[in-house]
Amino acid sequence: MPSDSQPAAATAPDLLKSPPTLIELFIAFAKMSLAGFGGVLVWARRGIVDQHKWMTADEFNETFALCHFLPGPNIVNLTFVFGSRFRGLAGAVAAFSGLVGPPALIMVVMGVLYHRYGEIDALRRILSGVACAAIGLMLAVVFRMMTPLLKRRDVIGLLVMVAVFIAIGVLRLPLAAVLLVAIPISIAITYAMRKNKDAA
User: Fold this and answer.
1) Does 106 lie in the same domain as 179?
2) Under 8 Å between Cβ of 34 and 102
3) Residue 19 shares a structural domain with residue 114
4) How many domains are there within the chain?
5) What gap in Å lies between CA 101 and CA 17, rounded to an integer?
6) What is the Cα–Cα distance from 47 to 52, expressed in whole angstroms?
7) Which pLDDT tens digits describe the chain residue by residue (200 residues)?
8) pTM for this one?
9) b/e per residue, 84-120, with b = 16+ CB within 10 A?
10) Do 117 and 83 share a domain, yes or no?
C-alpha cells in the first residue's frame, strides 16, 4: 500500500490533459501537414481531438471559430493559437514549423517537377481526382464539427450555421460583412441563453 508521502499516481484524464512538449507539437503538426492532402483541417481535428485528446470537440470548434475570424489562413492561425496555449511563443513556433516546414520542402520539389511535366494529360486527371477527394474530406470535417451541436440539440447554433451558409454560399454576400453581423448575434444569443439557464 503506498505511503502518504508518495505522490498519487496520475489518473487517465490527467494524462490525457498533459500538455505536449515542443518536440511533440512539431511532430504532431508535421504528421498533420504531411497527411493533409486537400487541406490540413481534417487531420488537425483528428490529431488534436481524437488521437492526442489535447482538446475536446467543443474547445476545438471554439478555437477554430476564433481563428476563422482572424485574418490569414485558418489552419496557420489555429497552429499559433494552439501551440501558444500550451508552450507560449516557443510552442507556437514549434507547431508552425511542423505545419509548414515539411510540406514546403516537398512543394519545392513538386514545383520543379510540375514545371517540367505539368502538361502531361495523365497528371491533369490525377489532380482532378485529388480535388474531388479534398472536397469529400472537407465535408467530412464539417460534419464532425457539427456533432457537438447535434448531440446537445443546439437548435439556435444550427440555425445560425445554416443562416451563415446561405448568406455566404448561396447569396454570395461578403465574408467580412456576414461575420460582423453573425458573431455579435451569436454572442448575444449565447449570453441570453446562459443567463436564463442560470436564473432557472
Assistant:
1) no
2) yes
3) yes
4) 2
5) 27
6) 6
7) 444 444 444 443 343 457 899 999 999 999 988 887 656 887 888 889 988 989 998 889 888 888 877 777 888 999 999 999 999 999 999 999 999 998 888 888 877 877 777 667 776 677 677 777 777 777 777 777 777 777 777 787 788 888 888 998 889 898 888 888 888 888 888 788 777 777 76
8) 0.56
9) bbbbeeebbbbbbbbbbebbeeeeeeeeeeeeeeeee
10) yes
Cα–Cα distance, 150 to 157 (Å, whole number):
9
Closest to 33 measured CA to CA, from 73, 60, 68, 88: 73
- The whole domain housing 36 covers 12-147
Contact 168, 175 (CB under 8 A): yes
Position 1 in a domain:
no
Q: Mapping DSSP to helix (H, G, I), strand (E, B) and coil, where does residue 15 land?
A: helix
> 24 lies in a domain?
yes
Note whether 141 and 160 are same-domain residues.
Answer: no
Do 141 and 171 lie in one domain? The reply is no
d(CA 13, CA 7): 17
For 19, how many CA atoms within 13 A lie in the half-sphere containing its CB? 10
What number of residues does the chain have?
Answer: 200
Rounded CA separation 18/15 (Å) = 5
Burial class (CB in 10 A: 0-12, 13-18, 19+), 171: exposed
Residue written as grid cell 490540413: 40
Element spanning 113, H or E: helix 74-117
Residue 4 lies in a domain: no
